[in-house]
Amino acid sequence: MQRIVTLLTDFGTRDHYVAAVKAVLLSVNPSIQLVDITHEIRPQNILEGAFVLGSAFKHFPEGTIHLAVVDPGVGGKRQGLAAATERHLFVGPDNGLFDWAFSLEPPRQVVALENPDYRLPQPSAVFHGRDIFAPAAGHLSTGLALEKLGPPLDYQMRLPGRLVFQGQKELQGEIIYVDRFGNLISNIEIPLAPGGRHLQDLQVYLGREQVLVGPTTYEEGPPLRPFALIGSSSLLEVSVRNGSAREVTGCSVGTSILVSRQTHGEKSSY
User: Which of 117, 128, 243, 258 is most solvent-facing, going by the fewest CB within 10 Å?
Assistant: First the structure.
C-alpha cells in the first residue's frame, strides 16, 4: 500500500540519522513515498519546526502521514504521539511541534505511542525518531488503525498560535522565523481586505522602528528599505527587496512586531 510520508527534523544531512529513520520506514513498508520537508530546523527549536510543518502540511494530499522530530526532551517524560485530523496523520513527540498544524486542522483522535509491537526492540533512549516514531508511521502507512498504537492521549496545545488582527485597534506579536532570504516572518495573520488593500490602512512597527507599508510583492518594495507585507503563509512579514531584512534591520526571532490602525487623518506611509 503506497502512502506519502513526509519528514521534518532538526537532524541535518551530515550524519546518518535521517537515513536511519528512512531505513526503518522502508523496512516496514517498502512502497512508501518519502518526501523531505526539511532537515535543517535549528537544533532543538520546536517553534521553528512547528511553523515550517504548519506551513507545509496542508498542501499534501489527504491521507499523508507527517513524521516530525524536533525533540529536545527525548528520553524524558514527554510522550510520543500519533494523531489524525480531518485529512492527515501526524507522528512525533508530544512537545508542541504539531501545534501550528493542529491550529489549522484540529486533531480528531490522538494516541500515545505505548504499544511495544509497533516499535523497534530495545529502543534507544536518545533516538526515538528511529526506534519509536518511524515504526509507528510505517505501520500507519500499511493501514494500521491509529488506536492500535496505544491508548487515547489528552492533547494540550503548548505554543502560541497565529494571532489574528481583525477588529482590534492594535496587536503585538513577534518574529518567529527567518527564512533563507532574510525575511522576518511574524505570528500575526492579517486577513486580506476587500479590493486588495492589504496593509495600507495600518501601521507596522518592528521593535521600536516603524516600517513601510503598501507594497504587496517583493518587487514593489523600494531598494534597501524594510517594508511589511503579507507573505505566502498569510502571515505578516518584514522584507527587503533583493536583500535581507535580517541584515538590514539587525532583527531576528523574538523581535516584537506591532500592528495598529491609523488614526483619523493619517496617511499611508507608501
Answer: 117
Residue with cell 518526501: 35
Torsion 189-190-195-200 (CA) sign = negative
Alpha-carbon distance of 235 to 188, in angstroms, equals 6
Residue 266 main-chain phi, psi, to 5 deg: -75, 150
Pairing, β 80-84 against β 109-112: antiparallel
Helix (H, G, I), strand (E, B) or coil at 189: strand
Q: Tell me if the pTM is above 0.85.
A: yes
> Which conformational region is residue 27 in: left (phi greater than 0), alpha (psi within -120 to 50 degrees), or beta?
alpha
pLDDT per residue as tens digits for the range 127-144: 999 999 999 999 999 999
By CB neighbour count within 10 A (0-12 exposed, 13-18 middle, 19+ buried), where does 100 fall?
A: buried
Residue found under cell 500575526: 188
Helix (H) or strand (E) holding 47: helix 46-56
Structural domains for the chain:
4-149 (3.40.50.10790), 163-261 (2.40.30.90)
Q: How far is the C-alpha of 89 from the C-alpha of 139, rounded, in Å? A: 12
